[in-house]
Amino acid sequence: MPSTDNVMDKLVSLAKRRGFVFQSSEIYGGLGSVWDYGPLGVELKKNIKERWWRSMVHAREDIEGLDAAILMHPRVWEASGHVAGFTDPLVDCKHCKNRFRADDPRIKGTPGQPDAQCPVCGSRGTLTAPRMFNLMFKTFMGPVEEAAAVVYLRPETAQGIYVNYLNVLQSSRQKIPFGIAQIGKAFRNEITPGNFTFRTREFEQMEMQFFVKPGTDQEWFEFWRHERMKWLVELGIRPEKLRFHQHTKEELAHYAKDAYDIQYEFPFGWQEFEGIHNRTDFDLSRHQEYSGKKLDYLDPATNERFVPYVVETSAGADRTALVTLVDAYGEEEVAGEKRVVMRLHPALAPLKAAVFPLVNKDGMPELARRVYDDLRRHYNVFYDDGGSIGRRYRRQDEAGTPFGITIDGQSTADATVTVRDRDTLQQVRIHTDRVVSYLGERVKG
Ligand code: ATP
Question: Per the count of CB atoms within 10 A, which of 45, 286, 360, 401 is most buried?
């Protein structure tokens, strides 16, 4: 394995070179901590989201899907606590103009006092006292930019689920326990973004809120915590790089009864990329209070009324994509040559196969085109006839393509092709009629 310090640099450069991730607005110098997904990246992220949706919504009878708008009534964010509480304390250096979180471990001394030293320029006594900074992006609805017209870009998708809880319950005829799942964009004006796509200002969440009877919440919490870990392991992520972190009393949100982060060991340390939270009846009770609409549930079996508890699984699609990229990255020597290989799970790989005519003559390109045309009706595949076959294999290794299909001299005689496995480098020869089903067995989710 390459040394951990420069893995991120190598990954960022590979991501750009191969079209996984580009910096936003790069030709204008880029926009801080906003990233765009290129042709390979968009496929990877889409595969992750589709797999999540399938496992949450399609594979289960007790979860419904939702796609709520990004803009919501501003009262939603008062009820949720975001207007008052979604803040980070910040300090500025009056000398170098840099801005830090007040709890930045590099700050020596107390910000606002003469002993505090700026971690960037080293000046003493130049740090301001902490000021609270709300992480929500604000904009204005309608033509007049006035306080009454302020709306927010949602900082999480969860609230769209809570405010639609009754609509979904009634229209789907679900009964508690049941869940609502949603994938969508969220925005946070992060102060200390960075580490590539790990912490960005615009990102996508995959959230599922599971509504349960109070008293059964801890059981469901345990259930979902294990389900989510299982899902990640099935995604091909190395289990030794995954762990749970249970929130301590200090870390726990004031409304949460219990919470676990799922962390991955990134080159920059163990970091959260998904959370499972027992949010109690906080959210529905608050929306009930702020909207004046009853959000309690009448249990048809027992005739009891209660406000459901919520167990939430909240994952970042971008952070999960980053986990799969970091986890897949490998460098090795093959026959005296270095190769970089992205060992992405075949179900996540942007391209499922690449088709190569060994040389551009003797009927090979025609047969290769036929195989390619057959395949692309079913899968995202790539045709490459440029350069030596070794180079073409290496390009696909970097893209994470699990199979390389080569049409050689024998192919035109007996209609067989070789299939090279990205990970084992083993080659098997199969009939062209079997290529679609061979791939199907190996790349299905
Ligand atoms: P952190 O402590 O890293 O800021 P958080 O605890 O605020 O994260 P949650 O509010 O629980 O995160 O959000 C759930 C998930 O959404 C996170 O696990 C992460 O995958 C994703 N997420 C949150 N903030 C960002 C961000 N700025 N950039 C990318 N993904 C994010």
Answer: 401
